[in-house]
Amino acid sequence: MIPEPLLEKHQATLKTFSKDRVLFNENETPKFYYQIKTGSIKMFNLTEDGKEFIQGFFEDTQSFGEPPLFGDFNYPASAMCLSDAKVYVLPKDTFLTLLKQHPDIHLKFTQMLCNRMLYKAKIIQEVSIHPPEHRVLTLLNHLKTSSNTSGLYEVNLTRQQISDLTGLRVETVIRTVKQLEKNGELTLKRHKVYI
Prior knowledge:
This is Cyclic nucleotide-binding protein. By secondary structure, this protein is of the alpha+beta class. It folds into 2 domains: about 5-115, Jelly Rolls; about 130-195, Winged helix-like DNA-binding domain superfamily/Winged helix DNA-binding domain (Arc Repressor Mutant, subunit A). The protein is about 45% helix and about 25% strand. β10 and β11 (about 190-195) form a beta hairpin. α4 (about 105-130) runs antiparallel to α5 (about 130-145). The radius of gyration is 18 Å and the shape is globular.
């Protein structure tokens, strides 16, 4: 999101985190901007019975956990490394100063946050009222649209991750994906989903 030379100019620290490392917990006060150089991160909430609800997955060049930096509220979810990761870490006040100095980057953040809000609104609607086929298809179409892919799009999520993102059981996702393939709404190749 922010070009690496600009991060380095503002003294961002490139930190290495191991798989399963928690970067911050739900309800903690936000102190840093995080941008992934390499690796993958998930943001999630835990229910009272210990079930995870995934808020999102983030990979190379993506940032995560920004809304609390702008809104001055605690983290609404936790963040954990899904793999070993190298992440740029920039103090909150330096991050906000950088955005004031670079309105073009600030505008890109606004656009990105709006896209995330649209995704959240779609998922809330899907989880509350729609059947599994509709939920899965909406998620996959959103991912394809967000990737700006015009042809066949490879979905880089496991069935478990699709389950976590849609609030469905894994078994339901597996059956749903097979039904969507049968209906011609997606393609399966070597157990990978394409849309």
